Amino acid sequence: MHFHDDSLFPENQEKLVIQAAPYGPEWLPGDSEDIPLTMDEQVQTAVDCYNAGATVLHIHVRELDGHGSKRMSMFNEMMVRLRQAVPEMVLQIGGSISFAPEEGGNEAKWLDYDTRHMLAEIDPKPDQVTIAIGTGQMSIIEMMSDSDLEGTSIGNNPALYKAYRDMIVEAGPEFYLEHLKRLQANGIQAHFQLGHVAQLETVERLIRRGVYTGPLILNYVAIGGGDAGRHPADLVEFIRRVPDGAVLTIESLMRSVAPMNAVGIALGQHVRVGNEDNLWFRKGERTSNLKQIEQMVKISETLGRDIATGAEAKKIYKIGEYYGSVDETLSRLGMVPNRQPGQRGFMLRPEGSAGRV
Ligand SMILES: [Zn+2]
């Protein structure tokens, strides 16, 4: 993104979109006081997050035994209930549906491709499904300290700890090419979860080759263990490398969530919070979904940046937008055109295009 002299002024920035991830699929009820168990509690959690200022809901569904649900019927039921309860929210299904370990607690294995492709068939359909780009390590405990894990199921269960320490994201081209196709065919927006600049470059190649022709809505996933860590220079560089027309949300882990998000808010980006990412406020002091959302509202308002309403969040996220061609996609994302045969030098936007084709 290009920062003009006036880009840091809140009146020139998009209103803040707060993404809530309140279902903590890697945790079990009791790991945090506010992990909802029943369907009613899960729906009420969404309502509470919305009332606190969150306008995007990152969804995982929990079974009554406390583990993450892998049943499509549960996802369908949750979607029906959420559409009624929080009609203004952007509903985003976590593509890492298999994030929760299998029963027995010794596996954190991502489900096979066919099962994950079923996320494109949820009815009623969500606004978005998150998608990882590229197979890699996702060791979610690498950046967690012993005190972060104290008293949690992962901290107390060596087998579970090991499963999450060694977790692999299975998302190679065979998966994401087909998944993007299915999401687009069903009118569901892909929400890219990118752990570093190399994954952003892969997405740019997909766009430049016409494989993906829609809005570029993404999270910078700075959770360590194979993804970016906490270095602010990497965060700022990622923001710098994202096209002007993209919508970027900062996602981090445990007590880096607030400071990383504070940088993101100051720089006009959006934020994600919730017990899926963080259980702590000050050292040794627990937080909650609602406290984390309220903290983001407070930081943003202190800087003079307004909080988006649900309708505004849907517009900012470009829900329902699709583009007809590679050129249109590049133009709408604020990216320069592809090189034509024989063209020398760096590419410029076409004269008179005013950024649109
Ligand atoms: Zn998730």
UniProtKB/TrEMBL annotation:
Needed co-factor(s): Zn(2+)
InterPro entries per record: Aldolase_TIM, BKACE
One matching Pfam family: BKACE
Top-level taxon of the source organism: Bacteria
Assigned keywords, A-Z: Metal-binding, Transferase, Zinc
Name recorded for this polypeptide: 3-keto-5-aminohexanoate cleavage protein
